[in-house]
């Protein structure tokens, strides 16, 4: 049986090269879709992911639901956030005894005045309602029940996932029932834009990254990775490179 791995951060195809360049484990939409057999034979999707970009996870979910053959998802360690959404696209979901599943609300960020913030709140709420449909379809719970679980950022053990309808059985369990963002290393958009420039132009790793709001850990990680990869570049005077301001950022769903 064909096995398809979903490991690390869930990203769009045009972000994959950036994450690969930094050495961050990731799975893009094409990593999954391109592995689906053309003969509609059964497949297994092996999941260990903290989540990632919500639209990427939703697209993988839809591709799995649309696939003509039987899809079995096996959660070996973690299916959190966007990874839990795509898992719902499988016909059968099995979870290992020490593994967990987590569902919660979509996260995002914008810059602007109060009108922009109000619009962003509506966008995030709509995303929550949209991905809740995948959980409702799988579990049979009501929409309100799912939204409440998402609001609480709910973690499920293997047994709880089965009891609540998010999984069909526990892997390696001889008494298996009959079947029918965690911290993801998601990079800020400004860092993605700057890195693309540096990769194409071999820019000085000390160049200032503008419009990025990142944690100290992310900043240190980026500095170390860029310095290691570009340590042969002659130092130049740091220059400011403007990054276009966006009103609405990419939306992320991660534990």
Structure description:
This protein is an alpha/beta fold and 255 residues long. It folds into 2 domains: 2-170, 2-enoyl-CoA Hydratase, Chain A, domain 1; 189-246, no CATH class. It is 40% helix and 20% strand. The chain has 9 helices and 9 strands. The protein has helices spanning 13-22, 29-33, 54-66, 82-87, 114-139, 143-151, 158-163, 189-201, 216-229, and strands spanning 2-11, 26-28, 43-53, 71-80, 92-95, 100-103, 154-157, 169-170, 252-254. Strands 1, 2, 3, 4, 5, 6, 7, 8 and 9 form a 9-stranded mixed sheet that branches. The longest helix has 26 residues, at 114-139. The model is unreliable at 176-180 and 238-249 (pLDDT under 50).
Helix content: 40-55%
Count of alpha and pi helical runs: 9
CA(first)-CA(last) distance: 31 Å
Question: Can you say what the CATH homologous superfamily of the largest domain is?
Answer: 2-enoyl-CoA Hydratase, Chain A, domain 1
Radius of gyration, whole Å: 20 Å
Shape: globular
**Strand/helix succession:** EHEHEHEHEEHHEHEHHE
Strand runs, count: 9
């Amino acid at each position: 049986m064909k096995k398809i791995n979903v490991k690390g951060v869930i990203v769009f195809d045009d972000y994959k090269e950036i994450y690969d360049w930094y050495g961050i484990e990731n799975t893009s939409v094409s990593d999954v879709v391109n592995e689906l057999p053309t003969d509609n034979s059964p497949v297994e999707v092996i999941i260990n992911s903290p989540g990632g970009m919500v639209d990427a996870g939703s697209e993988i979910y839809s591709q799995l639901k649309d696939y003509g053959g039987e899809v079995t998802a096996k959660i070996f360690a973690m299916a959190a956030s966007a990874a839990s959404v795509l898992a719902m696209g499988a016909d059968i979901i099995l979870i290992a005894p020490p593994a967990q599943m987590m569902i919660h609300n979509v996260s995002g960020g914008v810059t602007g005045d109060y009108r922009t913030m109000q619009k962003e709140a509506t966008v995030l709420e709509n995303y929550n309602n949209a991905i809740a449909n995948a959980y409702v379809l799988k579990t049979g719970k009501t929409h309100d029940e799912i939204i409440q679980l998402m609001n609480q950022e709910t973690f499920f053990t293997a047994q709880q996932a089965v009891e609540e309808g998010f999984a069909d059985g526990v892997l390696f369990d001889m008494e298996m029932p009959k079947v029918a963002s965690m911290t993801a290393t998601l990079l800020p958009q400004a860092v993605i834009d700057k890195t693309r420039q540096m990769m194409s132009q071999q820019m000085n790793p000390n160049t200032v990254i503008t419009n990025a709001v990142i944690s100290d850990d992310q900043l240190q990680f980026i500095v170390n990775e860029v310095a290691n990869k570009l340590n042969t570049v002659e130092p130049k005077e740091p220059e400011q490179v403007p990054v276009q301001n966006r009103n609405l950022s990419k939306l992320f769903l991660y534990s």
